[in-house]
TrEMBL record:
This is Peptidase C39 domain-containing protein. It comes from the Bacteria. It comes from Marinomonas aquimarina.
Amino acid sequence: MQTPVIQEETTGCGIAAVANILGKTYSEMKAIANGLGIYADDTALWSDTQYVRTLLNNSGVSTSDDEIPFTTWDTLPDTALMSIKHQEKDGQFFWHWVVFQRIDDQAVVLDSAAYLDSNIRTDFAEISPKWFIEVHSAA
């Protein structure tokens, strides 16, 4: 299993999540994102799904058209971008991006948060996803 990419900026979880899916480093993904006009300090990166979709689509990876409500861990696709830690500020919703992957029947969450002891998470009871974006084809 790959070593998870850690976000190098407080607000870089979307960039790191896409890097985890594509197998790129944070700096490689940040350069691609910046080239597309996407920056970690833009709060829309963690309050709008279009930015992560653009990053994935730009690399030839397709996603579900809509956000799919989370029901159970067992019903998730093999790869999904998940929204956790939902919060609202001034009428705007924000979240933290993580990646769910099922590899050889082992389910894990790749969480790019720098403060975690382990960025490969299996503590599913502690993670409260609201919805996810299915990743149809990953590199």
